[in-house]
């Protein structure tokens, strides 16, 4: 029998060149999420969110899976046996870190290296960008064992897929590979497994060159305006821009100066040179 991991060992991370590589770390369970893993993931997110040596967070999995969803034994059977209070607590712990990841201070990337099932759609949607291996498998298999895709998975399918694909995916319980996941919109791109990390590193490196205050405002805006009318979104974005300017107007001024006065860069071809910007402690990220 496989020895149960200590709570602190259910998530691993390392930082390289301002990229935090965070891993689901239960490969012997295909990285299924358990109450222990959910609690530890929140601690890791807390640890990394405001570190100056972290500019982008990548979420991936140890071994052959990203995450195969919720651990049916620990998350459902054992928790339910403890009563409603334990069920509600475990829900708060899982939904809590997914919500935290959705509104994270730094850009986030899902690097789906293998299986992504059921509850795994929660953190998949929470990441700003997503890339997967062609060999990865995505599935909403809940219908096969008699329940609906809970934990927000049904909502996520509707958010990311068109109506017909969402309905087919949820009702049929069939897996799709990485290429199909990319075609359907579950991820941005699908690549051969041996090229996946290089592509994610490339994308993360581009993000590191952007203004961090503008990145945070942009990612929040994309998530917020989807549920707004046009007029409400227009008003929200005006206020969001004003708030960003008040927080880091030096960055905005520097970008405009390099474009208009120095003519040293073109916005359509890359980011302005942040190294020339006056920095303040509050603008660091």
Automatic annotation (TrEMBL):
<dbReference type="InterPro" id="IPR029045">
    <property type="entry name" value="ClpP/crotonase-like_dom_sf"/>
</dbReference>
<keyword id="KW-0456">Lyase</keyword>
<dbReference type="InterPro" id="IPR051683">
    <property type="entry name" value="Enoyl-CoA_Hydratase/Isomerase"/>
</dbReference>
<comment type="similarity">
    <text>Belongs to the enoyl-CoA hydratase/isomerase family.</text>
</comment>
<dbReference type="InterPro" id="IPR001753">
    <property type="entry name" value="Enoyl-CoA_hydra/iso"/>
</dbReference>
<dbReference type="Pfam" id="PF00378">
    <property type="entry name" value="ECH_1"/>
</dbReference>
<protein>
    <submittedName>
        <fullName>p-hydroxycinnamoyl CoA hydratase/lyase</fullName>
    </submittedName>
</protein>
<dbReference type="GO" id="GO:0016829">
    <property type="term" value="F:lyase activity"/>
</dbReference>
<dbReference type="GO" id="GO:0008300">
    <property type="term" value="P:isoprenoid catabolic process"/>
</dbReference>
